[in-house]
Design goal:
By secondary structure, the protein is α+β, with helices and mostly antiparallel strands. The chain has helices at residues 9-31, 129-144, 147-156, 164-170, 180-183, and strands spanning 59-62, 68-71, 97-101, 104-108, 116-118, 121-123, 158-159, 190-197, 200-208, 211-212, 215-216, 222-231, 235-238, 248-249, 256-257. Residues 35-63 are annotated as: Disordered.
C-alpha cells in the first residue's frame, strides 16, 4: 500500500487499515474512466488552497454520465448553504451538486451540508441520513487526498475501532501520499439508508461501473459502497466497516437517486 510511505511499524499499521478500504473499492478503481493507474509516490502534496471568494464564477462541465460538475478556482469547493436537520431523520433529501475538491468529485447541498471547510476538510453536516451520506462520501475523498488533508481526516474525522488511539497518536508522524486512483471515482447514482438512529447511520451508495480493460460494460452495473457513520460533534466515518460493501447490482429498484 503506497498511501503511507514512511517505513517501519507505524507506517505498517496505517497501511493495513487503509488496505481494508482499497479492498472495497478496487473494482470501481479499475472501471472508472480517467482514474489513475496507481499511487503517486513522492512527497506529500501541498495544503489545498482555500475555496474561491465571493464573485468567483467557477467552471462548469459534465462527467462521462452527463452530470453537471462544478470545478472551483481553488482546490476545495465552497459551501452552498447551511446544514439544517430534517424533520424526518431517515429520509434522504436527494438534491445535491457535484463539486470537485482535491480533484475528486465531492457532494454538496444547500440544505444538509457541508456548510464549512475546516483545515481543508468539508465539515458541518445535518444530523440526519442525508448529512451522514454526504459526510461519508466526502470523508472518503479526504482520506485519500494526501498530505495535510489526509492527516486532518485521520486525526478528527475517521474511526478505526480498537486502533483509534494509536492512529490518532501516529497521525502527526506519518506521511500521506495522494492516491489518484481512489480520488478518480465518480459520484454515486443512488443511496439508501440501512440503519437510521440519531447518533448512528449505515448508508449504502451505488456507484455506476463503466468498463474494464476489455471495454465498456454493455449492461448497467453498480458496486455498493457502505458508509458506517457515528455522530460525535459531527459525523465520523468508520473505516474498517467499509469492508462490508462490495456487492455488484444490476438495477436501482428501492434506491433513492441523487438529483444532480
Amino acid at each position: 500500500m503506497k498511501n503511507v510511505v514512511k517505513p517501519g511499524r507505524t507506517a505498517a499499521i496505517v497501511a493495513v487499515v487503509l488496505a481494508i478500504v482499497v479492498a472495497v473499492v478496487v473494482v470501481a478503481r479499475l472501471v472508472v474512466p480517467g482514474s489513475g493507474q496507481g499511487d503517486e509516490v513522492g512527497q506529500e502534496p501541498p495544503v489545498p488552497t482555500a475555496a474561491p471568494g465571493p464573485g468567483h464564477v467557477p467552471g462548469v462541465s459534465s462527467d462521462v454520465w452527463g452530470r453537471q460538475v462544478v470545478t472551483p478556482e481553488g482546490d476545495i469547493a465552497a459551501p452552498l448553504g447551511e446544514a439544517t436537520t430534517s424533520d424526518d431523520l431517515c429520509e434522504i433529501q436527494p438534491e445535491v451538486s457535484i463539486q470537485t475538491s482535491y480533484g475528486a468529485q465531492t457532494l454538496w447541498s444547500t440544505h444538509s451540508g457541508p456548510s464549512a471547510v475546516t483545515r481543508a476538510v468539508p465539515t458541518g453536516y445535518s444530523r440526519d441520513a442525508t448529512g451522514a451520506a454526504l459526510a461519508g462520501w466526502n470523508l472518503r475523498a479526504a482520506m485519500f487526498a494526501g498530505g495535510e488533508v489526509s492527516r486532518e481526516a485521520m486525526k478528527k474525522h475517521l474511526l478505526f475501532g480498537a486502533q483509534q488511539e494509536e492512529m490518532a497518536r501516529l497521525a502527526d508522524s506519518e506521511t500521506y501520499v495522494r492516491d489518484e486512483g481512489m480520488l478518480g471515482l465518480l459520484a454515486p447514482d443512488g443511496v439508501r439508508v440501512v440503519t437510521c438512529k440519531d447518533d448512528f447511520m449505515v448508508i449504502e451508495m451505488a456507484h455506476r461501473l463503466y468498463g474494464d480493460e476489455s471495454g465498456r460494460i454493455d449492461d448497467e452495473q453498480w458496486d455498493v459502497m457502505r458508509f458506517t457513520m457515528a455522530w460525535d460533534d459531527g459525523w465520523k466515518l468508520d473505516v474498517p466497516a467499509m469492508a462490508q460493501g462490495g456487492q455488484i447490482i444490476t438495477d436501482l429498484d428501492g434506491w433513492t437517486l441523487w438529483q444532480f
